[in-house]
Amino acid sequence: MKQAEIQGMSVEELQKQLDQLKKEYEQMQMNHAVTPLENPMLIRKTRRTVARLATELSKRDSQ
């Protein structure tokens, strides 16, 4: 997800997307611990997207 897409989302959309990605990230971690994923870089990509969404939410809360 690109930064421009994130900045264009509403607060509700950001929160919904953040919750969904956190669940996906946890599931990926558990699956990877049992059986290695075909593409482990997806874990890193998801983690960074979660961080971007959380940062944008925090930035909007402080304004």
What does this protein structure show overall?
The protein has 63 residues and is mainly alpha-helical. The protein has one domain (11-62). It is built from three helices and no strands. The protein has helices at residues 3-7, 11-34, 41-62. Helix 2 (11-34) packs antiparallel against helix 3 (41-62). It is elongated. The mean pLDDT is 95. Belongs to the universal ribosomal protein uL29 family. It comes from Aureicoccus marinus. This is Large ribosomal subunit protein uL29. One of its GO terms (biological process) is translation. Residues 4-31 form a coiled coil.
Note the main sheet: none
Helix content: over 70%
Radius of gyration: 13 Å
Gap between N and C termini: 23 Å
Structural class: mainly alpha
| Model regions low in confidence, pLDDT < 50 over at least 5 residues | none
Topology as a string of helices (H) and strands (E): HHH
Number of beta strands: 0
Provide the domain count: 1
The number of distinct helices, counting runs of at least 4 residues, comes to: 3
Amount of beta strand:
under 5%
